[in-house]
Amino acid sequence: MEMNTILVTGGAGFIGSHLCQALLERGGRVVSIDNFNDFYDPGVKRANIGAVEETARRLTGNGCSFISHKADIRDAGELERLFAAVRPVAVVHLAACAGVRPSIANPAQYYEVNVNGTGNLLECMKRHDVKRLVFASSSSVYGNNSKVPFSEDDPVDRPISPYAATKKAGELLCHVYHQLYGMSIACLRFFTVYGPRQRPDLAIRTFTYMIDAGMEIPFYGDGSTERDYTYIDDIISGVMGALDWTEADEARYDIFNLGEARTISLSELVCTLEETLGKRAIRSHLPNQPGDVRRTNADISKARARLGYCPQIGFEEGVARFVAWYQAQGQAGGDET
């Protein structure tokens, strides 16, 4: 295959499908691998891939192409066959078991996929001399960090969920392979990503459906918990910048926060959705959930300086864009980084 093939794991997901489209717009060959599991309706992922394929068809004359491959990163043999066939020059590793609360219910699966699966991928990269990797980490690694905003230099050795622990373990594995094999690796700590195609289990998508349908929304705690919500287009620009950063002649390893650098409380989130939808929310007040952090807030100065990262979409505009997409889909709803 061509020498500019980029492999995206988890390419059928929310972030992955947007990234595949952005890579196609830039030009070249994009290969997605995804296991299309039933964490949420696999039909959602198939629709995401359909959108990417449509982009590829539109851009065929630009010399780009797209392949969607069903595979599981736990299957080392299948990864080996895929790497031998497509010969990527770089990998963006988004595939993972996602979500804080489900990881508490099923920690073993999270370890198997997020740690062992990442190890399989790194071993495959080593064998095939693939030197560039962008790894999707999470703001959850900061736990209940008392210092805000969160900086990449802050200690992250006190996670409060299995999901967070697996993401920190992934960062450590990446550092090992950088040191031993000269790989250039950017680990990106995503801060609560939202926007069109957002996973059905995430708060903004769930609340939008429930408010629109006149259903009670689960309102945990007193509404004061805060998140740094980051619009999908800004996250994609950060991933693209990180991919370019790995092209340096010398081997690099670093960690970058990708957020909007602004916090929104749960109460503010619900109020913004109410105003955007023109409907009132019915709140079902519930206790805070185990594993949920009190706040997330990104210091993005490092990503600004080294990746050229500059978020453009404020929260109110982002919610308006999401709701417009949601309404255009005629969503029947469905089931948070």
Low-confidence stretches: 331-337
DSSP strand content:
15-25%
CATH class identity of the domain at 6-192 and 231-261 and 297-311: Alpha Beta
What is the share of helical residues?
Answer: 40-55%
Q: What is the arithmetic mean of pLDDT? A: 94
Radius of gyration based on Cα positions? 19 Å
Reading the helices and strands in chain order gives EHEHEHEHHEHEEHEEEHEEHEHH
Q: What does this 3D model show about the protein?
A:
There is one protein chain. The chain is an alpha/beta fold and 337 residues long. The protein has a domain at 6-192 and 231-261 and 297-311: Rossmann fold (3-Layer(aba) Sandwich). The chain is built from eleven helices and 13 strands. The chain has helices spanning 14-26, 42-58, 76-86, 100-105, 107-127, 162-181, 203-213, 232-245, 266-277, 301-307, 315-329, and strands at residues 6-9, 29-34, 65-70, 90-93, 132-138, 184-190, 193-194, 216-220, 226-227, 230-231, 253-258, 264-265, 282-286. The protein has a seven-stranded parallel β-sheet with strand order 3-2-1-4-5-6-11, with helices on both faces. Helix 1 crosses helix 8, helix 5 (107-127) packs parallel to helix 6 and helix 7 (203-213) crosses helix 9 (266-277). The radius of gyration is 19 Å and the shape is globular.
Provide a compact summary of the structure.
The chain is of the alpha/beta class and 337 residues long.
